[in-house]
Amino acid sequence: MTTSLQKTAQIAFCFSILTIALWSCNSNSQKVDINKNIETVKKYHEVWSNGNIEELDTIIAPNFISHFIGGFEYKGIDGAKESVLETRKAFPDWREQPVDIIAQGDKVVTRFHSTGTQLGTWDGIDSTGNKVDIYEASIYRLENGKIVEQWGFWDEINLKKQMKAKSNQSK
Question: Domain boundaries in the chain?
Answer without folding.
Answer: 1-30, 31-169
